[in-house]
Write a structure and sequence with these properties.
Layout lengths: L15 H19 L5 H27 L4 E3 L2 E3 L1 H21 L21 H8 L7 H14 L6 H19 L6 H32 L6 H7 L7 H18 L8 H8 L2 H25 L5 H24 L4 H22 L4 H23 L2 E4 L5 E4 L9 H4 L1 H15 L5 H15 L3 H26 L7 E3 L5 H18 L2 H7 L8
Antiparallel strand pairs: 1-2, 3-4, 3-5
Helix pairs in contact: 1-2, 1-5, 2-3, 3-5, 3-11, 3-14, 3-19, 5-6, 5-11, 6-7, 6-11, 7-9, 7-10, 9-11, 10-11, 10-13, 11-13, 11-14, 12-13, 12-18, 13-14, 13-17, 13-18, 14-16, 14-17, 14-19, 14-20, 16-18, 16-19, 17-18, 17-19
Length: 519
């Protein structure tokens, strides 16, 4: 008798946002292959923006379903945590694409004209002279966004690892593709790739140990169920959980796994830096929260102090590292490290509403970060003969920006105030809800350290404000006019940063409904 096979019944509706993005990335590759050289860049930009916008709309619609009827489709968990992360990621992705697609008045984008050209070669000079610009970067961004959306949505460590690589591999390429200072850009990509490989190895080794501990399953629910029942394998469990957490902490740039952050953020094309600093952090924290709430939280008595100390060290090193920086991108990189420590407070709190607090903080931080790095790309050096060159990344070169470009300076002021947690900005509300969750979770001492660090970081940001508004314009610096897309993104992010600081209640009410389903 021949065996009979039954086709699996799959509910495709929860998967629609991810399918839209990954399917759109594949079509973007075909556009790059078959569209004419003259039109492919414009087509890919429009297509990418439409794809991410469609994913955002379907993710918002999916919230209505997930909030009343969370389900599991295979290894895909369609709960409100997944949908909230996908809404935030697609919003940040759309804003980041506006910055990524922008060109200045010089018709120079952020990316290398021909990535295959050797830095400093005649071929590169010819490509630059012709203002040539490849557009395969946009499908790569879509693939990365697809991985980000899948990363916090899976109940399986194996699928989580696949999503991690789908998110990371395009970024390694994007980091290496800067138009200027390409040697530095390629060095940053190599550092990111090598250290990212180590993090992936930790994640895989931890997954293998947890597979053995659970009796042959990589599902988070099965591992969580085995924690109170399996005896005699405590060491395997502890080592496995810690190694998986190491892999995830690397992606959020937590101490001591943060050393790649300043170099990679500095060497990468600035729009890619903004995309990484916002999108990767949201996705990585999304996965970390699911793993911690599902598995690692059961070992709170073993790991709570360890991870709390790491969070405190992350805040301290990020704060004091930024205090001595003279490069604006490195300053924002260390700021990113400090913010990772703040978010970890909400993760470790493990109280009702802490997941919503983390989601709100990630939303506010991501929006402000995209806008801040969008501004960095428009401040340029200018030679004595008037030729405009690369970015002016020294803080001292931003002197007088308030007189040179009031719109950019005022927008940067809003973002810096939000990073510092000043009232009437979204950053203040984000810190308030995360610190409140920390106090409820018994982490008052960690909140105290973070409050003290916030005062120090305010000094870091106000130093930039003082340079922008209270000094005469620096020589040899100019602000290039955007083609429009970056300025739109900067304006939208500035407005959202203020609105979420003044009227946070509607968003907080929605995010407080977040539940994390453990199958």
């Amino acid at each position: 008798m021949e065996p009979t096979f039954t086709a699996p019944q799959i509910d495709w509706v929860p998967l629609v946002p991810v399918i839209i993005v990954l399917g759109g990335a594949v079509i973007g590759v075909l556009i790059e292959a078959f569209a004419s050289v003259k039109h492919r860049r414009v087509i890919n930009i429009v297509w990418s923006l439409l794809v991410v916008a469609a994913a955002f709309v379907t993710s918002v619609a999916e919230w209505l379903r997930a909030s009343t009827d969370p389900i599991v489709v295979g290894e895909y968990v369609d709960d409100t945590w997944t949908v909230a992360m996908q809404v935030i990621i697609t919003l940040i992705g759309f804003l980041a694409l506006l910055v990524l697609a922008d060109r200045s008045e010089l018709r120079d984008g952020a990316f290398a004209a021909q990535p295959s050209d050797r830095p400093g070669s005649g071929e590169e000079a010819l490509s630059l002279a012709k203002h040539y610009q490849r557009s395969e970067f946009f499908p790569l961004v879509l693939f990365s966004i697809g991985g980000m959306m899948l990363f916090p949505a899976t109940d399986s460590l194996l699928t989580m690892f696949v999503a991690l690589e789908v998110m990371s591999l395009p970024l390694y390429i994007l980091v290496a593709s800067a138009r200027r200072r390409r040697d530095l850009s390629q060095e940053a990509a190599i550092k990111y790739f090598i250290l990212g490989s180590f993090a992936s190895a930790f994640f895989l080794m931890g997954s293998a140990l947890l597979y053995g501990f659970s009796g042959g399953s990589l599902r988070l629910g099965a591992i969580a169920a085995a924690v109170p029942t399996v005896a005699g394998m405590d060491m395997i469990l502890l080592i496995g959980v810690f190694m998986v957490m190491v892999g995830l902490l690397f992606k959020v740039a937590a101490f001591p796994f943060h050393e790649w952050t300043p170099d990679v953020y500095t060497g990468a094309p600035t729009p890619v830096t903004g995309f990484m600093a916002a999108g990767v952090k949201v996705a990585a924290f999304g996965a970390l929260v699911r793993f911690y709430f599902s598995v690692a939280g059961h070992l709170k008595w073993d790991f709570a102090l360890v991870f709390a100390v790491l969070a405190a060290a992350t805040v301290i090193f990020g704060t004091f590292g930024g205090l001595v920086q003279k490069n604006i991108k490195r300053l924002l990189a260390y700021s990113s490290v400090a913010h990772a420590g703040f978010v970890l407070i909400g993760v470790l709190a493990l109280v009702q509403g802490s997941a919503g607090a983390v989601a709100f903080y990630l939303l506010t931080y991501g929006i402000a970060t995209v806008g801040a790095f969008g501004i960095v790309g428009l401040v340029r050096v200018k030679s004595a003969d008037g030729a405009i060159g690369g970015e002016a990344n020294l803080v001292s070169q931003w002197a007088g920006l308030g007189k040179r470009s009031p719109f950019l300076a005022f927008s940067m002021l809003i973002f810096l105030l939000s990073f510092a947690g000043i009232p009437l900005t979204s950053g203040f509300i984000g810190k308030f809800v995360v610190f409140s969750a920390g106090i409820q979770g018994g982490l008052g001492w960690l909140v105290g350290i973070s409050l003290a660090a916030s005062v120090v970081t305010a000094a870091v940001y106000f130093r930039v404000v003082q340079v922008m508004f209270f000094r005469e314009p620096a020589e040899g610096v100019t602000v290039v006019r955007s083609a429009g897309l970056a300025e739109v993104a900067i304006g939208v992010t500035a407005v959202l940063t203020v609105l979420l600081g003044i009227f946070p209640a509607p968003v907080l009410d929605l995010l407080n409904q977040i539940t994390i389903l453990i199958p």
